[in-house]
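Quarterly update from the structural biology core.
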Amino acid sequence: MSEIRLDTINNKYVIIAPERLHRPNLQSYDREKGSKVNCPFCEGNEHMTPNEVYALRYNEPNKGMWKTRVVPNLYKAVQVELEDKSQRDGVFEFKTGVGAHEILIDSPCHDCDINDLSVFDVENWLRTMILRIEDLKNDKRLIHLSIFKNFGRNAGATQDHPHTQLLALPIMPKKQLAFLNRNIEYYFRHGRGKIEDIVHNEIKAKKRVLYIVGNFVSFCPYASEYPFEVMIAPTKNISSLNRCSREDLIDLANIIKMTFKKLNKQLGVFDYNLFFDLAPLNLNFETEKYMPYIDKNYRFTIKITPRIYRSGGFEISTGMFINSVEPEYCARLLRGD
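Predicted structure, tokenized:
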């Protein structure tokens, strides 16, 4: 039986429609291994990328023998060199394209997704993000940081070698700003943030929870937009990745690895988007209302959205998604119940 569920984080509805599970446009396919010869992200091809801005390595920059590597995006959407200016032309308003757009090469392995990496490799991946967050925070023009990973063609990837993108902006996207506003209103009414209560209720309900490791929980959200969608969130108030302790980082690496192992067991090699929702980088006129309370009411989250079928006209026209697999069923499969 179908249900229309409210996603209280994004304040929008999702239709859970199991009857559509067996419609013919669901995709199942095998991924071909890509060529390493001309891959700019492979070890030995460092000359094919811009000079690195950071690498986890023990030798000189822009050479081999690295564990993770961060380079400017060759096809960057924004540029850190520009002057931050806002202009108006009648009813039209725009800012110069100020920002930072970087590529984090997850590992030297061309064919290794997260499921293929060791927990230590995943921890290095996370640690590299933290170091980039700390560096980007020094540019006070930047207030929002989007960290996301597109894996596979259906998820928008244009390079086969697994990588992650970091895109820092001088503005808050409307979606994130709307959540900050709803979250602080919720905090002023209840003394708790929305993610805190969602995590509490998911752990209490148990039926959508996959794992609890240290201060982190992974679960299939109540109003999942995609089949086998998984969210990972702290069980205490940690507002951003760079606020994690060393022990937290180890636990987070473990729960990410465990979650991907279960997803790959059920789905095989699958296309997906992974993204972090983090607290604002810096304070400005858009964020000053929220920043004094951010460590009290905000929890960063990681969402994994498998892209095993295409969205259509309904999703585009309404902003609502139709999910053909109940998250409770997905959680049972992933747990192995």
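The CA atoms of residues 87 and 94 lie 5 Å apart.
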